[in-house]
Amino acid sequence: MMKNYDVLIIGGGPAAISACRVFGSSPRKMSVAVIRPEQFSMIYCAMPYAIEGVVTVEQTFKEDTLVTGNGAELIRDAVAEVDFAKNEVATLMGERYHYRKLIIATGANPVVPNLPGADLNGIMTFKTGDDLIRIRNLVEGGLQEAVVVGAGAIGIELAQSLQARGVAVSLVDTEDHVLPNLVDREMIKEAEELLVQKGIKLELHERVVALNGTQEGWVAEVVLAGGKKICFREPGKGLVVFCVGMRANTGLFKDTGLALGRNGILVNAGMETNLPGVYAVGDCAEFVSGITGKIAEGKLATNAVLMGKVAAKRILGQPAEFTGFYNGAVTKVYDLRIAGTGLTEKAAAANGYVPVAGYGQTTTRFPIIPGARKVKVKLIADRNSRRVLGGQVVGGECVAERIDLITFTIQKNLLLEDLAGLSYSAQPYQTFFPAGNAIVMAAEDALKAFSVNIANTRRQC
Ligand SMILES: Cc1cc2nc3c(=O)[nH]c(=O)nc-3n(C[C@H](O)[C@H](O)[C@H](O)COP(=O)(O)OP(=O)(O)OC[C@H]3O[C@@H](n4cnc5c(N)ncnc54)[C@H](O)[C@@H]3O)c2cc1C
What we know:
By secondary structure, the protein is α/β, with parallel strands linked by helices.
């Protein structure tokens, strides 16, 4: 007899797991099942560090109890077809399951541009556990050279992990600086210098246009738009990894009646699709920026978790809404921490704002305390409304907490003067100097662009 579930979840990533957590902690009991093909769900964020050897590959596997410990059944299989009219899914292994509510959490697949030579051996992406094991095996087998295409957080972290294992790495990006979606040009100079010092060759403002191979079909050269060729010293022994973005994994739903946008499955703030009882969450769903209200990229585990929770709460009859992508994110370049949130100054201008920027620079601890490191904060605000649109923090430590505070400011539609009037803590080992909080300094600096002195006056208006 066909098994029947109150809730069937397709996918085993953070979006699915966070939905399971909500069902598991609810007093209202429902029969929930998760279908995913992998033996293990991955801690994707930790994958670069398994190449570097900081953690083992096995440590990047998530425990199945994240699903089963929350009372959900785990089905290791893949959905091959969904019959939305009958509320049924058919799987690759030939099973059929009936559901009352369906949560689609199929994630996204990495993009490989359609270039001449893109099907050569030695060309990869970096998303799955299999990708990790393959790259790790190549490194263990003495990989000498690699080209990482895409200098976003995934590309940057992969490049460093390969370099740490003695691989000669070139990092290519079409933009004129690394981490272009996270921070503006002037905030990233020190990080780029560090990458270069460590021996990573930066090929910025460059585009890969073709890949040439050996007679045996292994990649041998990477051809750039400017005419330069990155040639592997030992053709047939190099690796090219494309980290140029992800595309929503929605192939299963083409021509099924499920409404799809350019960036994924269309959902409302309750994560409901156009079909009754069907929800979509995480990287497979298209959603808007919480700042601009326009369709935006937001393929982050942190967004997936929030979306998964909203869908589960709605199914349980609880009020919940996803308010949009703010994209607070953090990465590292060796021992320098780099964080960004909201819109960069460039993105703010591209979205029609007239951006105003302010900077604050100080040390992560009181300057007299051992271990104090430089830290720089940039705030971006809208000249018309003084609403905070974005922030960037680059420094030696504790940047994540600071970027999260700025994200919250943006989420709550606060203004520069709200941040200028921030009430904060201070202690020599843990914070900025009392008289020099870099976030407050950046807000005060940005406020200089306004002729009227509005700092701390908002509440009197
Ligand atoms: C190397 C790397 C590092 C990252 N680092 C960070 C970071 O530091 N911080 C951060 O916030 N984000 C990070 N991300 C992004 C983050 O991992 C994703 O945004 C997140 O995993 C999306 O979660 P999801 O649940 O929507 O989809 P996914 O995690 O992609 O999960 C999709 C699931 O659906 C399953 N599936 C697909 N098709 C089917 C089918 N037909 N039937 C059954 N199951 C199916 C898949 O097998 C998988 O289990 C990183 C990503 C990578 C690749």
